[in-house]
Amino acid sequence: QQQVKQSPQSLIVQKGGISIINCAYENTAFDYFPWYQQFPGKGPALLIAIRPDVSEKKEGRFTISFNKSAKQFSLHIMDSQPGDSATYFCAAANTGNQFYFGTGTSLTVIP
Amino acid sequence: DAGVIQSPRHEVTEMGQEVTLRCKPISGHDYLFWYRQTMMRGLELLIYFNNNVPIDDSGMPEDRFSAKMPNASFSTLKIQPSEPRDSAVYFCASRAPGQGPYFGPGTRLTVT
């Protein structure tokens, strides 16, 4: 059973546009929600993370929006750049250190 | 800090051979994870350690897989005997409470 459902599977955005990736979860015990960026041939790199006590967290062009009641969270990439082209993974974890990853979104930013 | 270090970066071996993957976590991190990534199954947690003690190995696919963490700065994942279906990228990751985990560059394993 997929603990974290991620969509879309792939995304194409024009340079300067907003990229939005969505994730949903069921387990209300999750209390930590990180996002990872992975380039080909590299390991996933921690991008930004949020806890359920806040509804939004922003770091530079990257923003996580969190909706606790809907059990959904999303990553917004503002002013998307070709260098942002990568695979993005959401994840959810509980205090037991069980990290569950989404299936990934392949983002392509067209110049 | 150099980040999580993994070796080798690439491993090609024949079916039936023993394979040992190595990991050095970030200094001060007390959790260490081993993940496997394939196109079909995505990122799968194999096992994780806390303070060098295995906590959850329910993701280890079969008895052919074993992992050890003899000290805070070193862990191994061993596959014996290896099979073609074990071909994947294996990641080690570490974290301190409240952050991460931070992934290493991975070991790309090919079993022919």
List the topology elements.
The complex is a heterodimer of chains A (111) and B (112).
Chain A lengths: L3 E4 L2 E5 L4 E7 L7 E6 L6 E6 L5 E4 L2 E6 L4 E6 L8 E8 L5 E3 L3 E6 L1
Chain B lengths: L4 E3 L2 E4 L5 E6 L6 E8 L3 E9 L2 E4 L8 E7 L2 E6 L8 E8 L6 E2 L3 E5 L1
Main attributes of the structure:
heterodimer; A: 111 residues; mainly beta; six-stranded mixed beta sheet; five-stranded antiparallel beta sheet; 0% helix; globular; B: 112 residues; seven-stranded mixed beta sheet; four-stranded antiparallel beta sheet; 11 strands
Explain the overall architecture.
The complex is a heterodimer of chains A (111) and B (112). With 111 residues, chain A is an all-beta fold. Helices cover 0% and strands 55% of the residues of chain A. In chain A, a hairpin with a 5-residue loop joins strand 9 (86-93) and strand 10. Chain A is globular. The mean pLDDT of chain A is 94. The mean pLDDT of chain B is 94. In chain B, a hairpin with a 2-residue loop joins strand 5 (42-50) and strand 6. Chain B is globular, with a radius of gyration of 13 Å. In chain B, the strands form two sheets. In chain B, strands 2, 4, 5, 6, 9, 10 and 11 form a seven-stranded mixed beta sheet that branches. Chain B has a four-stranded antiparallel beta sheet with strand order 1-3-8-7, with no helix packed on it. Chain B is mainly β and 112 residues long.
